[in-house]
Design a protein that fits this description.
By secondary structure, the protein is mainly beta. It contains 4 helices and 15 strands.
Length: 238
């Protein structure tokens, strides 16, 4: 019976990567973290999100947060084209999309071809590299991303999952039951081309924009105040 030595077992250890590009630079992530790859669809902007958050989209009925891969990695922005793709990354059952310029291939690489990144190129706060893959005698380099860090929004505004949003929205004090059953009534409105909504029980009334009195030294989003039926009403500009 042939028995491989420990050294042989190590030599044949492999990783399977999904490789993709930002410009001419090639990157890779472990295929086990990639749920699927889809085309870039219509993305809804999310206000006050970090600059690398492109927005959110509807993926088969689920809200999918979308990260701009270039912005996340501090690479100059580029217009999306027909080659652009979204990598749907699964982290502990939560999906997040990452926009890349194009997807290259699924590649098997030996763990011996993966080297630790040089210390000088690491950044303590944005250390997204797990290693560098060297192929073709070093003529082809693939930067191996720590995808868990790429999609993590530690300490910053996060896009909530659909379940988290529902859990926060539903409470004894704010939920309004309609006559038709378990439905919420919303007032929807536009900001630019994006549509938003709030619970109707939080809206006292809707009026035309009156003449607004400016108030010095206010926050930039406060337009001023108006008098509505002798009641002083501060006006916020969304």
């Amino acid at each position: 019976m042939f028995m491989a030595s420990n050294n042989n077992n190590i030599n044949f250890a492999e990783s399977q990567l999904v490789t993709f590009n930002f410009g001419d630079d090639e990157f890779g992530v472990d295929i086990m973290n990639v749920k699927e790859i889809v085309r870039v669809t219509e993305i809804t902007k999310v206000p006050n999100a970090p600059d690398y958050i492109e927005g959110a989209c509807n993926l088969r009925g689920q809200i999918l947060p979308i990260i701009d891969g270039r912005a996340r990695l501090n690479i100059a922005k580029k217009e999306k084209d027909e080659n652009s793709r979204v990598l749907v990354i699964d982290v502990n059952g939560t999906a997040t999309g990452v926009i890349v310029d194009r997807v290259s291939e699924v590649l098997r690489v030996s763990t011996h071809d993966i080297e630790e990144p040089p210390q000088i190129i690491k950044n303590v706060s944005t250390d997204y590299l797990n290693g560098v893959v060297k192929l073709d005698n070093g003529n082809r380099l693939i930067m191996l991303l720590d995808v868990l860090k790429v999609v993590k929004c530690s300490g910053e505004a996060k896009l909530q999952t659909h379940e988290q949003q529902n859990a926060r929205a539903v409470s004894d004090d704010s939920k309004l039951q309609s006559d038709a059953g378990d439905h919420d009534q919303l007032v929807s409105f536009l900001l630019g081309n994006e549509e938003y909504a709030i619970g109707i029980n939080q809206v006292k009334e809707i009026i035309r924009v009156p003449e607004i009195m400016k108030v010095p030294n206010c926050e930039v989003y406060v337009d001023g105040v108006v008098s509505i039926r002798n009641y002083l009403l501060p006006i916020i500009n969304l």
